[in-house]
Amino acid sequence: MVRLTLLSCFAAVATTWLTTSAEEAKDEGNKVYLSSHSLHMPYIDEEMRSNYFEFGGDTVINTYKGIRLTPDIPSRAGWLWSKHALPTNSWEIEFEFKISGAGTNLFGDGFAFWATTNDPAPGPVFGSVNEFEGLGIFFDTYANSKASHNFPYVMAMIGDGKTSYENDKDGSNTEAAGCEAEIRDRSFPTKALVTYFRDEFLEVKLQWEAENKWTPCFTVDKVRLPSLVFLGFSAHTGEISDSHEIISITSHSVKKQRKTSQPMYTAKPAQRKQESSGWLWKLLALGGVGGVIYYLYKNNNQNSKRF
Hints:
By secondary structure, the protein is an alpha+beta fold. It is built from two helices and 15 strands. The N terminus and C terminus are likely disordered.
């Protein structure tokens, strides 16, 4: 009876310790998956629809390849839009895309990532409406004007619902930030990672130099978007063309904010040291409890033998 009680006590202590550790590990996670704003193969159900996204224009869904916003044909436009607003003001969206075509010197025009209050509708800004409210990130592959940078060019614009994106200037007068990136016709998957913390920053990283290598594109501080924004993608072609495809979308709600007071590389080692010492103390404590239980168990057996 004493043996059973001691073993039960030890099991309870071990279970409590493991449960506490698991809860702490869970708390260390900084993001929650948003299935309502994620999209992967085969994209649509048996009834040829999606519960969370709608599409229109020249968009075609290939359940084995991707969502083609435009074919490599002039004067085409298509869009893909979430049915529900993003449920959080801090989010991270990673998406794989593909821009390709037969053109070697002339091709275009590109596609856009949207986080706006607008409903899906065709328009002149990469296949969507102008004077939008929210965020537009433009993956521009064709230069409409003489610019100080090369193309393709990835840039952001924060729309107020009144200011227009000017195609003739490639949006240079309303650009918040941007970077050059060879995102067209790569031999490996091209991706973008967009991270937004309300009132803190907007950050874009790209995978275009090599597979599984993220290259920083830009960071804009003190960005505030409307509280309710919809996730969208659109593309268009003019006299020249390209195929623009969205292969996958993975969205997360981000819970922990980036600390800007210290460089990232100095904060991480201190955090690991703190976590390591915490685990060490728990192991020592568990070992001590086990030792006490073993001593009581052995002493109980010796007393039993006497009688």
